[in-house]
Structure formats: C-alpha cells, structure tokens
Design a protein that fits this description.
Elements lengths: L2 H5 L5 E6 L8 H12 L6 E3 L8 H15 L3 E6 L5 H13 L4 E5 L20 H11 L3 E6 L10 H13 L4 E6 L3 H13 L6 E5 L5 H11 L5 H10 L3 H21 L4 E4 L5 H10 L1 H4 L2
Parallel strand pairs: 1-2, 1-8, 2-3, 3-4, 4-5, 5-6, 6-7, 7-8
Helix pairs in contact: 2-3, 2-11, 4-5, 9-10, 10-11
Bound molecules: flavin-adenine dinucleotide.
C-alpha cells in the first residue's frame, strides 16, 4: 500500500522506524526486533539506509521481511550523495523487484572530510535529484525529509523552505520531519511551509529518549532545541535507567497526544529497534488509536 493513501485516511495512527544491522552477525537480532514491532500493526514501518554502503545492504532484506511476514507496508530509505548513478539505479531496480512501493529519497550526510570539497563532479548533490530519478523509474510513492529547526547546512529557514518546495514539486508525495522536542517548532514550521505553497502531508518524527546518553547524540545529529521541561527530566532521572526510560516514553507520548489534538493524523516514531518502547507508546495511546 502506498503511504500517500494511508495518510489520506481520517484515522489516527502511528508508524515506526527501524534500522538495519551494521554487520551480518547482527542480522538475526535486528530481524527479531523489527518483527516484534511489526506485530504491533503500525500503519507502516520505515527502514533506514546507511549512506555509502555499511548497513545499506540489509535495508531491503528487513523491509521485505516485515512486509511479507506481517503485511505491514514498508518504506525503504535510500540515500544518493556518496553513490554513483549506476549504484543508485541498481538499488532502485532491487527495490522494485522486492515489491516495495514506498521510498524515502534522501541526500545522506556528506562523508567526513568532504564537507568543503568541490561537488560539481559528484553524481548527486541534493535529494531532489533522487526524487526525480525515482519518479521516472517507476510508480513509487516518494517521501522527503524536512527540518522544523532548519537543516544544519542551510543559511536560514527561508532558503531551506525554498529548496524544500523545489524538492516537493519534483515529486515528493509526503514529508517526514527531523525529530523535535517542542511541538510549537513544528506548528510554526507547518504554518511557514503551507504559506510557501507546500501542501503535501507532513509526518512529525518523534524520538522517545529513553536513556541519558541519547540526549547528546540526538542534539548532535539534529541540532534540536531541548525545552527546559525536557532538560529537567534528564537532570532528575538521567542516572536511573528505568526511571529515565519511563519519563522519556511519557514525554514522547505527551508530544504525540498534543500533535493528534492539533490535527496531525499519523506520527512517525523513531523506535530505534526497541519493541518494548514502541509497544509502551502504543499502549499509552490505546483508546486514542482504538487499538
Ligand atoms: P536535501 O534535501 O538535499 O537538503 C540538504 C541541504 O541542501 C539543505 O540544507 C537544503 O536546504 C539544501 N539544498 C537542497 N537543495 C538544494 C539546491 N538545489 N541548492 C543548494 N542547496 C540545496 N540519512 C541516512 O544516511 N540514512 C537514512 O536512512 C536517513 N533517514 C532520514 C530520515 C529523516 C526523516 C530525516 C529528517 C533525515 C534522515 N537522514 C538519513 C539524514 C539525512 O540524510 C541528512 O539530514 C542529510 O544531511 C540531508 O538529507 P536531505 O535528504 O534532507 O537533503
């Protein structure tokens, strides 16, 4: 099923993100974790892609397994910036052969050490080129990434939204946001992109922070603003793993309830291969989701 059709429904739903193993030895445990998450019957599951090789080999295996065993629609991520045209075209054919209809078209991070390199000769410079390629390669439902707090490489939000509009016009059927911890940032962003003429559905991405070490990683990765309410929670419970986990899940649940209450229909949860976290969030919302 295409994600754009799921997003057109009026029902409230959660989708979950998982990531593939880095090596073959980790495959079985990741497969089991992703199957446990699939048993929760989310609206769909996304499987990330390791830019420039690494985990990229297993993205399709995991996505195909979830879809075939549990009938859960899957979204395979694909990055382009550190790949050749030939590799990307081969990957797209593999996705098609695996029967996966939904692809998240990403640029990927610039490989370390090449941040200031001359990119004029690179096969891909921006995600928009991958969006166009996917749309011309088949009947894919294509997603794109967006950044309520501005992509770290952008000079300002106006410029970021201008490029986002070009990416959507090239064929994105929906957008998924980078994680954020203050819903007002999302509401302000939505107002600005709608004003800029971006009308496709936007799925907020919510990251449940379940241990204190994740906080620094999350800030480094996304540059996200941490509200005082969230900082206090980490200060108080950060050294007590079970309490931190409970508080982090409660905080994410609260964010999701507020998003639903303000008109969002599907929230994408960065469940990080943790079935217990996905399960807890879903059960916290059981009456709201009707599950
Ligand atoms: P783009 O849309 O190309 O944007 C990147 C930057 O370039 C922005 O600053 C944008 O404003 C600017 N820009 C865009 N077009 C132009 C143009 N024509 N001229 C000049 N500037 C331009 N990474 C992975 O490696 N694997 C994953 O599976 C993965 N999944 C992700 C899922 C989500 C929901 C998100 C939010 C991010 C994900 N990432 C993933 C990280 C992502 O690859 C990085 O954030 C990357 O730095 C940007 O990717 P993008 O697709 O947003 O790029």
């Amino acid at each position: 099923m295409k994600i754009k059709d799921l997003l057109a429904k009026e029902t409230l739903s959660l989708s979950f993100e998982v990531f593939p193993p880095k090596t073959e030895t980790g495959f079985d445990s990741v497969k089991t974790a992703t199957e446990e998450i699939a048993k929760l019957r989310p609206s769909f599951m996304s499987v990330t892609y390791g830019a420039g090789g690494g985990t990229s080999k297993y993205t399709l295996d995991i996505a195909k397994n979830i879809k075939e065993l549990y009938g859960v629609p899957t979204l395979a991520h694909l990055t382009c910036v550190s790949s050749s045209k030939e590799t990307v075209r081969r990957k797209i054919e593999e996705i098609k052969t695996a029967g996966i209809e939904n692809v998240m078209a990403l640029r990927g991070d610039i490989p370390a050490g090449l941040e200031t390199a001359d990119r004029s000769e690179w096969d891909y410079k921006h995600a928009i080129e991958l969006v166009r390629e996917l749309k011309s390669a088949g009947d894919f439902c294509v997603g794109g990434a967006c950044y309520p707090e501005v992509h770290p490489e952008s000079a300002n939000q106006k410029e970021d939204i201008r490029y986002l509009k070009e990416k959507v016009d090239a064929g994105c059927d929906f957008l998924t946001t980078q994680m954020f911890f203050d819903n007002n940032l999302l509401y302000n962003f939505l107002y600005k992109i709608r004003e800029a003429g971006i009308t496709v559905p936007v799925m907020p991405g919510i990251m449940p922070i379940t241990n204190a070490n994740q906080v620094a990683r999350a800030i480094k990765l996304s540059g996200s603003f941490m509200p005082q309410r969230f900082k206090s929670l980490v200060d108080k419970f950060g050294n007590t793993p079970d309490a931190m986990k409970q508080a982090g899940i409660a905080y994410a649940t609260d964010q999701i309830i507020d998003l639903f209450a303000n008109g969002i229909k599907n929230v994408h949860v960065y469940s990080m291969n943790k079935p217990d976290v996905a399960q807890k969030i879903q059960s916290n919302l059981s009456d709201i989701l009707g599950k």
